[in-house]
Request: fold
Amino acid sequence: MYEIDKETLARAIYDNVAAALLEDIGSGDITSHLIPRRVYAKAIVTTRERAVMCGSRWVDEVFRQIDQSVKIEWLASDGDIVEANTPLFKLSGSARSLLSGERSALNFLQLLTGIATRCHTYSALTGNTHAKLLDTRKTLPGLRLAQKYAVTCGGCHSHRTGLYDGFLIKENHIMACGGIREAIMAARQTELNAPIEIEVENLSELEQALAASADIIMLDNFTLDDMRTAVQLNTGSAVLEASGGITENTLFDIAQTGVDYISLGTLTKDVKAADLSMRLTL
Reply:
């Protein structure tokens, strides 16, 4: 639905890593400094479970900021399905540097791999329908672009990035604006070239949104029957997005109703990190 700008993502990666290293290393890694500076080491990072790998650029940036002499050899790429016990990448360089960067690098890789893996699993549940899965703004503070990137690696799609790049008129906005038509008209009168999405809670509100020519209509907690009716009433004039209370068990049935998109906060907010490990050799 929305694409992540490459330059914006690159800046976010740099900032994500700088914040993580400041948080973890602070004034210095006092334990790794027990190791003589001259000690050279190699390491290998392995996944202990089947997963969709994601996060290589964050790992690269961790060691770039710590020690540019560290060498990384990637054995898998973002978006690859990797089996349990598969080596993901190798490291070589100062033992101090490898150990100082280990936790931050693995934190990024295990989180983003976990998200990509979940998205791959959920995407497969839509079968051969045309429905596409969207993330939401329910992300970890400071890591939104990282998580949204992981969503795309897992085969799902990114909703708007934030409050600035797309209108999403919800119940409280509608109330404050004076109604569905009034809210959509107010958005049309701005000079912003942004899609106008509005949330509706029943078929009556859907008809109002269609009459006001909304670009995207979010069907909030609709029943399956009402979703099917919404698709028939819409006749392709707006994009329809299902949302609210969607689970693995209901995903396929919702996709079969004919909606265009299904948004799920669980793609980014309830994720279990992938199980990874790093082993050092001297």
